[in-house]
UniProtKB/TrEMBL annotation:
One of its GO terms (molecular function) is nucleic acid binding. Transmembrane segments: none annotated. Residues 281-340 form the RNase H type-1 domain. Residues 45-139 form the Reverse transcriptase zinc-binding domain. The lineage of its organism: Eukaryota, Viridiplantae, Streptophyta, Embryophyta, Tracheophyta. It comes from Microthlaspi erraticum. PANTHER family: BNAC02G40300D PROTEIN, POLYNUCLEOTIDYL TRANSFERASE, RIBONUCLEASE H-LIKE SUPERFAMILY PROTEIN. This is Reverse transcriptase zinc-binding domain-containing protein. CDD domains: RNase_H_like. InterPro entries: RNase_H-like_dom_plant, RNase_H-like_EbsB-rel, RNaseH_domain, RNaseH_sf, RVT-Znf.
Length: 362
């Protein structure tokens, strides 16, 4: 049992509630406190996680810079629903990495930075993609609504931010990455090959490609079987079954609070406890992490308490081993476990034939 007054003294109220809700077991063995690194799953320090933390701290402590901070805008690029190629193009546009006159000039390339299509102003990324008359025409005719002084404007970042997060919730809006791409392609065809694109052709091409991409994506996603955990409360089921000389234990778990990597460890302890009157035991699990944890507990300090429990329980067997088995090869135990979880009450069943509620087992 947790010493509640001591918990309250040592931990934040929210953490105390979590400890109690999650039912984190207290250890049966007295082990000294140890250091752990909780930015990795195992609890052991890794250079990669240390570097990640350092980067994060640095970003958070960066002093304010003058001018807009476009990093969050850049990060949004990778969430835009389009192909990787287009995401990359959006990122290049935002970071000024496309070869427009103004950008080339800023790299000391001897070039007239004027826009070669309209000759009215310097050819910036924003001018090319949003404000040059041929681009403006495309936006005006496209399904994307244009709002005076709002979109498009003279600010590349404002225009991109508008496209990323201020468009109406309408699937036709999804074509904008393709529109930008074809506006850019049309600019290149004009500047490099003197080929003119009709704005309607740009829109037709962009919307058709956007639609084809969205359809292909939807097909791909519905083809995947999704595992949805809808169980509100945590419940675990452990069942074992005798069949001739062979004993089968099935264990399963459902819940939405405990991180999945805890499941194997804690339930393994449970299963060992249930079956500790057996003298020889082979545990087969489809969670390969559990096998690693039990064989090299020193690599998993985050699970030290649970692994101590396993260690303590294993001494009760004359022989103990744990091996990995793919779930497809362990269907009987899996069925037992699932059936255990769906039963409304605890049922203890020891027999040489299948229980009535899972007749298809043997
Ligand atoms: Zn222009």
């Amino acid at each position: 049992m947790w010493n509640l007054p001591l918990l309250k003294q040592l931990f934040d109220v929210k953490d105390v509630a979590l400890i109690l809700i999650l039912g984190i077991p207290t250890s049966h063995v007295s082990r000294p406190d140890s250091m752990g690194w909780f930015l990795t799953r195992t609890g052991r320090y890794s250079v990669k996680s240390g570097y990640g933390l350092e980067q994060q701290t640095r970003q958070e402590s960066t002093p304010l810079v003058f001018g807009p901070d476009t990093r969050s805008l850049q990060a949004q690029v990778w969430k835009v629903k389009c192909t990787q190629k287009l995401q990359h193009f959006l990122w290049q546009s935002l970071t000024g990495c496309i070869a427009v006159g103004d950008r080339l000039k800023s790299r000391d390339i001897q070039i007239d930075p004027q826009c070669l299509r309209c000759g009215m102003t310097a050819e910036t990324v924003n001018h090319t993609l949003f404000e040059c008359p041929p681009a403006l025409q495309v936006w005006a005719l496209s399904p994307i609504p244009t709002v005076p002084n709002r979109f498009p404007t003279g600010s590349l970042f404002a225009n991109m931010a508008h496209l990323f997060s201020e468009l109406p919730n309408d699937e036709r809006m999804g074509c904008y990455p393709w529109l930008l791409w074809y506006i850019w392609k049309a600019r290149n065809d004009k500047v490099l090959g003197n080929v003119d694109w009709d704005p309607y052709d740009i829109i037709t091409k962009a919307t058709a490609e956007a639609l084809a991409w969205a359809n292909a994506k939807e097909k791909q996603e519905t083809g995947i079987t999704r595992v949805v955990h809808s169980v509100e409360a945590i419940s675990s089921g452990v069942k074992w079954m005798g069949h001739g000389r062979k004993q089968i234990v099935g264990l399963d778990w459902a819940g939405n609070i405990t991180p999945p990597n805890r499941i194997g460890g804690s339930d393994l302890g449970h299963a060992m406890y249930v079956k500790n009157n057996k003298v020889e035991m082979v545990f087969e699990t489809d969670c390969s992490d559990v096998v690693k944890m039990v064989s090299t507990p020193e690599e998993w300090p985050a699970f030290a308490v649970l692994l101590d429990e396993v260690d303590r329980s294993r001494t009760r067997f004359t022989s103990f081993s744990i091996v990995h088995i793919p779930r497809t090869n362990n269907t009987k135990a899996d069925k037992l476990a699932r059936s255990a979880r769906t039963l409304p009450t605890d049922v203890y069943y020891v027999n040489s034939v299948s229980p009535a509620w899972i007749p298809e087992l043997f």
